[in-house]
Structure formats: C-alpha cells, structure tokens
Design a protein that fits this description.
282 residues; eight-stranded mixed beta sheet; alpha/beta
Amino acid sequence: MQMRIIFMSAISEKPPRDEPVRDPARATTLLLGNPNVGKSVLFGVLTGRYATVSNYPGTTVEIYAGRRPNGEPLLDLPGTNSLLPTSEDEQVTRDALLARQADPGLRVLQVCDTKNLRRGVLLALELGELGLPSVFVANMLDEARARGIHVDLERLAAQLGVPVLGTVATRRQGIGPLVGDELRARVASAEVVYPPAIERAVADLLHLLPADRRGRRGLALMLLAADRSLRPWAGQLLGEHADALDPLQERLAAALHEPVRVVLHRARLAAADRIVAAVTTR
C-alpha cells in the first residue's frame, strides 16, 4: 500500500522525533465524530499537525494517523452519523471500530458539534452499546453560545456516563486534558429501550455470540439490522452459529412490519432527545 506523508503545518515546523504511524492497526486512540464537527482541527492540534495518510484497505477512503504529544498513536476515522453505515466512509469507520473493539487499551475521543448535540448523543449511544470506552468532546462551544444554546456539560456527563470535555479546538480552548494522560475514557451507561420483539431477538442472539466478547449487545443489534456489509463480520463473530442469523432476522422483520434499522434509529432518537432536553437551555 502506498502512503503519502502530509505536512499540514507551516514549512518552518519540524515533525516530532517519533516516527509517524505507518500501520493504522497499532492505533489505540481513535478520533471519531459526525461530519463537520471540527475533528480534523482537533487532530491537527493533538498531533502537532503531522500525519500519515493512506487509503483504508480495499476502499478509496483516506484515513489519517499521527501521534498525541505523549507518543500514543492516534487514528482519525472518517466522519459518520451512525454505525449502521449508509456510505463507504461510514462503513470504513464501523469496520475500523470492529477491528479494534477487543483491544483492551482502546479508547475513543468522540467529537461533537455542540450546537447539533442530538447527532453526537446518537453516536455516543451506539458506542456505549458496543462497549467502547470513550470521552465526549463537546466542540464548537463558542458557536453554540453565539446562538443562545447552553449545554450543562456536567449533567451531560452524568446522563451519558462518560467524561465530557467542552472545547473550542480552533482556539485550543479546553484541550488540555486531551493532551495529557489524566482523562480516562469510560463506557457509556445510558441505555436505549427497544420494542419487546427486538429485545427478544437480542436475547436469542446473545446466546450465539462469544461470552467474552466486548459489547455483545451492540454487536447483536448490528447483526439484526441485516446490513449486508456486515456479512463478513457475521461469520467471524458467530462462527459455527452463523447459519442461525438469517432465520432470526426474518422472524424479527416479520414481527416489526418495517425495517429493523428504522426501528433502532427511532428508539435511539427518543433516548437522545430525552438526554438533550435534560441538559440544554436556550
């Protein structure tokens, strides 16, 4: 695979002594968020604006890798609105998360546009179901305040169950904890209530997934959504039980009378709206 090194800073700046990350599989911190949330700006701040760029294997999607000030590898994933992908970019992000999901040292820095908090909370709920430790970065605080939007960050942290950090990345405001090691990621504790038919199908599928696999509930929900791009992962996750997936999906679709992913999204929206309403004032 050919890789191009891009210097995203002024010519006078020198790259750090550490070698750039040439193997994205080594990354232990993943930068993730919706499109247009200032993620690339934050990546530049955290890596000294020095990065390696390459295409994700088998795709035309570019990914960026660098190092945080403490030398820890950092991988910048393509912007996504959901882990049930509708584009190649979103599929790359989903696959990158699944490929590293079992890594005990993995953590996710999830960047959100504070004035569009609902989209960020939706993604945070999915990360929690996958059992991925995360830090919620409420970015663009200045733009939210300019629109009269105030978010109680402490209450948001309590609602999600993960650390929440307010930032203005373009001004380097609030990023101090992200530069060092003092901020610890946690798995979101916020829960989504799904219709009984989905909960029964999840319970059936949990019996087929490896008992020691992280985020089994999130994996079960992904598999039940009948996403064709997840087929390769289904065989890996279910092993000898892979043949049982199709009947489960068919029974669930018949019980719901509408696509499973639509029902999942509706339930997550309801949960996200409750959280946003509890932490936001205008």
